[in-house]
Fold this protein.
Amino acid sequence: MTTSTRGAARTPAVLVLEDGRTFRGRAYGAVGETFGEAVFSTGMTGYQETLTDPSYDRQIVVATAPQIGNTGWNDEDDESGRIWVSGYVVRDPARVPSNWRSRRSLDDELTAQGVVGISGIDTRALTRHLRERGSMRAGIFSGELLAPDAELVQRVQAQPHMKGASLYEEVATKEAYVVPAVGEKKFTVAAIDLGIKGMTPQRMAERGIEVHVLPATATAEDVYAVEPDGVFFSNGPGDPATADGPVALMTAVLERKTPLFGICFGNQILGRALGFGTYKLKYGHRGINQPVQDRTTGKVEVTAHNHGFAVDAPLDKVSETKFGRAEVSHVCLNDDVVEGLQLLDQPAFSVQYHPEAAAGPHDAAYLFDRFTSLMSTVREGQRA
């Protein structure tokens, strides 16, 4: 990524898709060039949490909400230590942020972190194009990096695809750290960071869980050195088909029958560990308004999503795996994509979406309670 920060608001910019379609607008954030997979997010709020979600690594995010930046940028809502998106695409950036927690504008924060963006384009037309053609490689170019369209298309087409990309290690923590329990400590959890969002261990801590966040390269020995009551596998970017290390680690956890919970990338890892395949969705689920049914209760939840891959598991039957029976526990009501898995013969389950809901509705917060109940049941059984 090449960036500059001078005169961005008046600087011409262009978004170029790999199929040759272009959208012209103005630079937003840093001036320069950037590449990534163009995807759209349907959330009307929560752009700060979206931009700092490590699962968006190497993606150019298109905001479908027409106006972005109204609440500025604060120092409390980051989901990680930096912005992870490769680029940001908005239609109508707010001229002046207005919120009592705001410390600076979104434009200023994008510029400070060197994130190349574009504004003033028809994001509705772009979103419709991506829905019809699928998510694809793209580039944003502005300032001195502008060139003839044919040349820019070639540069975009030379970039790597998201399918086959192994990204989780580059976003994960390099050193283990601990998020202490709030109030009385009830359980210890080893959380494997594959691109974890900050609110996730916080939601567990609120339930009396001391969370040991471990690097993506953690071994079974590292996990059991913290004497966990449960093991958690986080969200993360890239193609789950490349995540052989996390699959091997999860397999070791399942063999020991330790209570296990996974979200997003962690759901895909569980799917692979159980013998299911994964595949790339045409344009994915990204936003905070996706309807999902919990098939164990029949309840429908409005949920927060960020995933471009899914698990290929049968919806209409219980599957036999090497760890016992497994079934699809949650399903997306828009397109019948698998949104959760659970084992019926040992304590393990996962969901494809984000129950920590930062940002998003809190319909799925009960899943953290389900995890604590699972650990409590196993602990009581061991004492019996």
User: Anything to note?
Assistant: The CA atoms of residues 315 and 352 lie 15 Å apart. The first helix runs from residue 47 to 51. The chain has ten helices and 21 strands. The first strand starts at residue 2 and ends at 4.
